Amino acid sequence: MSSPRSSRKRLFAFLLLANVVASHGCAPPSVAANETPPDESKHIVGWVERVTVVPIGFPVKAKLDTGARTSSIHAEDIERFERDGEKWVRFTIAVEDPDDVVRRTRLERPLFRNVRIKDHDDVSDRRAVVELGFCIDGRSERAQFTLADRSRFIYPVLLGRRFLADRYVIDPAKTFEASPTCPATESDSPEPSEEANE
Predict the structure, then answer these.
(1) Does a structural domain hold residue 184?
(2) Of 20, 95, 128, 145, which has the maximum CB count within 10 A?
(3) C-alpha atoms less than 13 angstroms from C-alpha of 168 in its C-beta half-sphere
(4) What range does the domain containing 18 cover?
(5) pLDDT score of 80
């Protein structure tokens, strides 16, 4: 006959085993106790995607980088000017089309703001920021872009975390997951000085 002490030990061992099974064996496999369920409102994209900048009209490669706060686009011949008392900027977007031919599009946009960027030598560079429309993953988007010389970089467009936050999740193992096509009704703001692509 078992003593009361040994019965209590067996009961304690049984309860401990039941607790382990309940906490590990019966939990839903998709969400662990310390995991946050994925936000289904955010689209999953690769770290490099093709986007269609609306004024250009064809897909270009873009790096999606949460390490950069502001988005950036390669621009040349940047000129600041005033129109009706407002600050504007005139610039040329020079990027390769899908056939690897460099196409240049001259644009004018209101100056959204200025940013100061410091390089590795601690030299400050004042850059213009404009707002541009573009398409990624079949969605129409708008973002603030610094106009910069990105000729030494592989990708002419960079999308930073100011744009990515609350919209997209980056899968670092994937590239070119999203479609660069625009919705059928997509159009950008009027182009007061847009020239034909060269």
Answers:
(1) no
(2) 145
(3) 25
(4) 1-37
(5) 95
Question: For residue 7, what is the enclosing H or E element?
Answer: helix 4-20
Burial readout 111-123 (b: 16 or more C-beta within 10 A, e: otherwise): bbeebeeeeeeee
CA dihedral in degrees (85, 148, 172, 132; nearest 10)? 30
pLDDT in tens, 107-132: 999 999 998 776 656 566 789 999 99
Supply the mean pLDDT for the chain: 80
- So what's the pLDDT on residue 110? 96
The reply to whether 16 and 67 lie within a common domain is no
How many independent structural domains does the chain possess?
2
Q: Does 23 have pLDDT greater than 60?
A: no
Q: What amino acid is encoded at 80 in this protein?
A: R
DSSP state of 121: T
SS3 19: helix
> What pTM did the predictor assign?
0.71
Same domain for 81 and 115?
Answer: yes
C-alpha gyration radius of the chain:
26
| Secondary element (H or E) of residue 161 | helix 161-164
Are residues 11 and 65 both part of a single domain? no
